[in-house]
Q: What sequence folds into this?
């Protein structure tokens, strides 16, 4: 509970600069799953390129390019999660969290480039069709890719949500998109393979570039979503509405010690949140008591949002609400009049 003693001349701020063992463990967990993504993507790139070149499938080669982009994205994610956890320093007083947002944005832009290349190659294949050899190999490598990426992406999502890592979640969406596109290519190649066995006179080789175009369309959609998700925090957009509502409810629960609040500002950099606001309290509250109040607020906020940086400015309340103070005034009319008479 908040300290209910009234005290004097309060101007207090609190910022979390801790580097607890829990935070270190989470950073190590993020790095391990990011490294797993790098290893799995490296393996799939080699396999897809080899099979795609051997059987002459543009859809398999497009998937190899897709996995190549995923590999670059995974490498960027691995670098960003290693770097974003570095504590704040003199040159970076707000930490290095935005590296994760930059990473996610770069990953999304890379997907756009890959999609354009796939579309170009697919159109060329439609204009100048070539028969496929050993389509069954393509089916096998696409099946393997879908299974591996399902497992790795699930792990990325799990750790990304647990640690609130934009980079890992973006990497997870990379691989989850690869699962869908691999499945689509696998079905297309399976149709070509089945036709070659049971209906040799039916020409289904157009299915291969058509599947590649479908891959490109899905990739563009994923890239757009990732760009919006990653880039928004680079512009210091406020926290989501439900998080702001929770902070406001925390303040409201501390009446009558807290007379009002205003200038609530929030932003996010990677998995780090920055929260600041002004509190109105009784004019005769002492410095020690106001300090206790800010400590309690900060502790509760960081329990809800680990690693949050909290800055609270205490102001004396004389009962007259004006300007930005009006919206967050918590005084009843009778209480407001009583304070103004003092």
A:
């Amino acid at each position: 509970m908040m300290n209910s003693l009234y005290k004097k001349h309060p101007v207090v701020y609190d910022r979390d600069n801790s580097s607890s063992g829990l935070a270190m463990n989470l950073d190590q967990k993020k790095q391990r799953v990011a490294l797993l993504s790098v290893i799995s993507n490296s393996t799939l790139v080699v396999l897809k390129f080899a099979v795609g070149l051997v059987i002459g499938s543009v859809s398999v080669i497009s998937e190899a390019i897709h996995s190549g982009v995923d590999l670059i994205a995974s490498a960027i994610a691995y670098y960003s999660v290693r770097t974003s956890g570095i504590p704040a320093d003199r040159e970076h007083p707000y930490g290095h969290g935005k590296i994760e947002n930059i990473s996610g944005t770069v990953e999304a832009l890379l997907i756009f480039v890959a999609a354009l290349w796939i579309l170009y190659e697919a159109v060329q294949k439609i204009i100048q069709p070539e028969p496929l050899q050993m389509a069954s190999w393509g089916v096998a490598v696409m099946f393997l890719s879908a299974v591996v990426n399902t497992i790795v992406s699930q792990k990325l999502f799990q750790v990304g949500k647990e640690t609130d890592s934009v980079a890992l979640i973006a990497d997870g969406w990379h691989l989850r998109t690869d699962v869908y596109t691999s499945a689509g290519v696998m079905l297309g190649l399976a149709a070509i393979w089945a036709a070659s066995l049971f209906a040799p006179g039916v020409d289904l080789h157009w299915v291969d570039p058509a599947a590649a175009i479908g891959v490109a369309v899905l990739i563009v959609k994923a890239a757009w979503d990732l760009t919006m998700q990653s880039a928004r925090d680079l512009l210091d957009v406020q926290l989501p509405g439900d998080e702001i509502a929770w902070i406001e409810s925390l303040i409201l629960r501390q009446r009558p010690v807290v007379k009002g609040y205003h200038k609530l500002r929030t932003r996010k950099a990677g998995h780090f949140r920055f929260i600041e606001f002004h509190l109105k309290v009784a004019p005769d509250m002492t410095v020690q008591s106001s300090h206790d109040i800010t400590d309690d607020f900060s502790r509760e906020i960081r329990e809800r949002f680990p690693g949050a940086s909290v800055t609270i400015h205490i102001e004396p309340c004389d009962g007259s609400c004006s300007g930005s103070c009006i919206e967050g005034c918590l005084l009843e009319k009778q209480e407001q009049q009583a304070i103004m008479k003092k």
Notes: Confidence is low (pLDDT under 50) at residues 1-20.
